[in-house]
Sequence to fold (448 residues):
Amino acid sequence: MRRRIVILAALCGVHMLARSQSMSIKQCIEYANTNNVNIKNARYDEQIAERKVKELVGTGLPQIDASAALDDNVITSTTLLPAVLMGGKEGEFVAVKSGTQYNWTNTVQLTQKIYDPTFWVGLKAARVSSELSAQNSRQTGEKQVYNICKTYYQTIIIEKQVSKLKATLDASEKSLQSTELKFKNGLARKVDVDKIRVSFNNTKSQLQQSELNYKQSLNTLKYHMGMPIDSAIVLADTAVVEDDAAALMDTTSQDFVENRVDYQIQKTNIRVQELDKKRNVAGYIPSLSLTAKYNYQAMRQEINFFNPDYDWYESASIGLRLSVPIFDGLQKHHRVAQSKLNILKATENLRLTEQAIRVDVSNYEIQYRNAVDNIRNERENLDLAQEVYTNTVSQYNQGMGSSLDVVQAESSLREAQNTYYNKLFNLYIARLDLEQSKGNLMTFINKL
Fold:
């Protein structure tokens, strides 16, 4: 029965591994492009902006409306006619009821803009707004890519840290077993066993915390991808080392301001404000439109509109409608003034964004160079700490060292591992920040 249980558990483990998706960082990004809610909503906003352009185009096409009205004149209107028309005295009037009690009118009306300057300016503004929406969508996508890359690297580095801690824990366990055996044989003291056990427990506790951090980081990655938390995935880019991110290009002679999507958004916003000003100015210009109307009317004393013995009466008209703005209480004047101020404000924001981008690039270059130097130093420190720990354990097993030396060497090794992996994570984040500050994040990711 025990053998069957073991075999069943092994088969279940193999099945779960088979169901796990092995995903590279590019595959995670591709998955997010389809499933991340923020990216999907940004695309919906982009489509809404495109529909608004088409909606505005529709206002320039012929507008045709049809209507039907049924009126019950409960009290018909009264008209005063000169009495002389009916043989009466001049200067007197006779009250005459006019009209029928029931009227049914069918109307079809067409309106077509002939000249309206606000329409063309508004159409340009809508198209620029659509472009702005596309830029916002791109910015949202880049933010999600950055979050995915950051979390992906964090998860990979924690996984490597877990692997190193497991190796350290195995070595510590062997030292503990060896010391316990020496103690039983009278070759070691109880305090030596306790010291090494404390060190073993500390390593074990750190390993458990790292494994917990790995699970949390993996869940965060799934969240940024838009993947269900209960999905099983395995990260494919496990060969993350400092050399992958240590090549820094010479960027001193290049200008990356135009690459930044936030800078492009600011420039587009200026265009939007300028078109808003033109639209307000165009409000001073007269507009001309064509109108055409056709009526089909029936007048009855009784509700018998479908009786073929009674007539229906037609009427039609065609005309031009000219609208000339004369005075609106200076409303348009103040709207134009607001537009001018908004343009000045947008221009200042563009200048501020440009300055911020140049500062970002300069600072992130410094940060990245510092991270490259740090990781090289920490790599050397980690190798030295590993060598010291290995030699100390070997000497202790040969009876040439103390348990305190082993405990101190193991503590130094754990500290060196923590520092190294923290610096490695900082290196990758510094590279992401640098590429993002230059507007090259997507190009950088595509080259991985």
